[in-house]
Amino acid sequence: MSVEIKEVKSKKELKQFVKFNIELYKDCPYHVPGIIEEEMVTLSRDKNPAFELCETIYFLALRDNRIVGRIAGIINRKSNEIWKQNHARFGFVDFIDDKEVADALFAAVENWAKSKGMNAVHGPMGFTDLDQEGMLVEGFDQLATMATIYNYPYYPVHLERLGYVKDQDWHEFKIYIPEKTPEKHERIAEIVKAKHGLKVMKFTRTKDIMPYVQQIFDTLNKAYTPLYGFVPLTQKQIDYYVKMYIPMLRLDLVTLIIREADDAVIGFGITLPSLSEAMKKAKGSLFPFGFIHLLKALKTKPKVVDLYLIGVLPEYQNKGVNALIFNDLIPIYRSLGVEYGESNPELETNSAVQAQWDYFKREHHKTRRAFIKELK
Question: Is the torsion defined by CA of 103, 55, 164, 14 positive or negative?
Fold first, then answer.
């Protein structure tokens, strides 16, 4: 049977779009499903403030009235303005291992992009840098994290066959927690605190961290500006992410670095217990029992933590602030019995970030890629 491409137009079709990922990977031990309700919000024009900056289209591929693939086309106008390019993005892409299906999905996005005046398509990327991005090209036998995409090995094979080439790679590491904080970290931490007038701030109640939340996102915007495809978050997007993520924080695993002179946030480390196994048990739904698995994972002593977000103001980068962050977190990890942390994606070209792991046992276990194709 031939493949039919159908544009998603109704809420019912959008839910089918979201659920196809879970259905395709239901027997895969390495895939971590998202939460259906949250992904519906992310993809809804009336709920996600990213749509103030983005134009998008969603396609389903059907064969014999059965869904066999999905893909989103996204044009981030602000990104194109900042990076001085005319690119569309593809994202939220999944498909069975079938040449005809892959061809039809990417042709749909490419034709849409050309109709909008774009001259290239790259991805997989989302609306913002906080969405999942990068197609897995190494590490198919490793469990995904909450923040990353898992895909079957045949995905990049089809991309390359269709003329997509490497645009950027991210590396991911297992960072094994040492028996004690490296002496160099301890030494640097004390020097940095004294030289720059910094202090480490911890919290035990969510209401106490709230006065610093805006500054955390402002620091993130400044720290991440040079990174591939990054677009600074608008105030509406910051408010959106505050509601989404702040309730999930495990405060003992959050470290702020504050400048004593003016109480300004100049760096932060936000880590979370790994939620991968809990989300697999939830199977895409918070109710009736999915939230129980997530709450348990957030509260128990974790064997694995996700190094979710780390940011330092540009003027303080390469001055030892990261050592100050981990000088605080490593003893906490040890007390909880954490075995290793998942770095999550780091740009292969970001040598400064990867250099922070030089004093730890580490394992490069995953690589993911942004592909690009010039349109003719």
Answer: negative
